[in-house]
Amino acid sequence: MKLSLLLLCLPLFLAAPTQAQPTTIDASPQQDDDKIAEYETKRKAAGKDVEKLWDLYLWCDAYGMDKQGRSCLRAILKVDDAHEEAHKALGHLEFDGKWFTTQKKLDQYKKAEELRIAEEQGLVRFGDEWVPKEDLAYLERGMIRDDDGAWVSKEDYEKQKAGWSKQDTVWVSPDEKENIDKGLWKCGEEWKTLDDANAYHAEIGRWWIIPSEYFLLYTTLDRKTALEAVEIMERTYRDLNRALGKSPAAPVIVTMLRNQTQYGRFAAGGDGNPQTEVRGLSSVHYAFLADSWFSSELEYLGCGAGYWDVEDENGAAWGRHSARHAAALSLIESADPSPKAIEKGKKSRLQSWRGDDYWSEKAFPEWFRFGLSSYADRYFIDQFVERGGNYNWARDWSVQNLLAKGGVRPLPQLFTTELSVERLDDSAKLLNELGLILAFALDGKNPEVAAAYGAVKNAIREGDRKQMDKAFKDLEKAIIANEKALLEFAGI
Asked: Parallel, antiparallel, or unpaired for β 252-257 and 303-307?
């Protein structure tokens, strides 16, 4: 009987719930009103006392008065923004010695701070990384640094690691490397002596392709003369870097032909070679911009082109100037390209290529473009003259040439007159005059002109077309306003 009663009662024992201890103190509605009234009294008494406010927060927390407790925490932070316990109680997030009310605000801060630091260090975004601005162009082309820190393609790096050697731009396998040690040159599939290699590369399309730090020289010159041309081009780079305020992202192509006849053939095309210019300006000077040069694979090769005739009595002298002018045109083109026109030409397989789109896309006005190339050719300061020599011999020679042809025309005309194959003599003189304008802007030390030119360089670095348009106009006005100073600078 007792066992049966126990069995009947067992389910009741098993089903009886256990009471959990409350985290807050239960209160009736009347008690709630009382607690709120009590809270108001305590809050008034706490004032701005951080310790009393914190104690009041704990009291609110014990009675489940969340709204009132958060009010106490916010009051604490108004007095003491560094109060760690109050921040944590409000669920704030700490980062970099600062507190953030939400994850979104923390993320925004991180992003802004990352950008600020990057800008201070000259970094730009590439994928998920911040990289030096000067590295961006290489990274966008998929290049990497080799073991010596030089930028190379991934394919070239793999060849380096596999023991291949590079002769100019030609990769040589480990099995053929001994030919380099013998002084031979790889020409197509054959290895030739230097004399035979010079003869092989003397034809358009079978160029020597000689790399340097800033240039990639396509040339039919004998190698000795070609290397002299490269040295002159590297000097020209320093002048143009000072003038433009920016360096090319990669070595730029320059072309040098071995005589004037070959130079003309390269410009006009024929014999299976493409026409490389549309404006005929190769007839104006001893260098021109090959604005329409595409390879058979539609790679754009547009660059400055000149010639150096070692057989001519004055060929070496004129060749040096031609190399300077051609190098300058290539560097200017790298700073002011026409990517939209080039892409349009490629898509049409050059059926729509006429050159108008190419030239209208330019940001640099023609007077600046051709004036700067003329400066590099005829008005450069020669830092390699012998001790006691005239550093400004090129400027003096060019000014004398101008005087012999009637002097400098009114300055406003220089900014509106265009080079034209229809006016060869006048266009040649115009090139010289534009060179003088740039020499005055760069070397004249006129405060107004120097300030205007500085604004041009800043606009070029920023790449802002509207900013450039204004800066060039302002430079024109400054030069015209200082015509007397320009003529004094030239000694006229």
From this structure: parallel
Report which of 120, 53, 114, 116 is spatially closest to residue 89, judged by C-alpha positions: 53
DSSP label at residue 281: G
Sheet holding 215-219, edge to edge: 208-211, 215-219, 252-257, 303-307, 287-290
Fold entry, domain 201-351: Glutaredoxin (3.40.30)
Measured distance CA(26)–CA(5) in Å, rounded: 38
Q: Which pTM was predicted? A: 0.74
CA–CA gap between residue 371 and residue 411 (Å, rounded)? 13
In the chain, what are the domain boundaries? 121-162, 201-351, 377-490
Best CA proximity match to 475, nearest among 243, 289, 229: 243
- 358-377 pLDDT, tens digit per residue, is 999 999 999 999 999 999 99
Alpha carbons 237 and 240: distance in angstroms, whole number: 5
Residue 438, C-beta contacts closer than 8 angstroms, at least 6 positions apart: 243, 368, 371, 372, 374, 375, 379
Separation of alpha carbons 215 and 237, rounded Å: 9
Q: Encode pLDDT of 59-86 as tens digits.
A: 999 999 999 999 999 999 999 999 999 9
Phi, psi for 462 (deg, rounded to 5): -75, -25
Q: Strand 129-132 to strand 123-126: parallel, antiparallel, or no bridges (unpaired)?
A: antiparallel
CB burial readout 9-35, b (16+ within 10 A) else e:
eeeeeeeeeeeeeeeeeeeeeeeeeeb
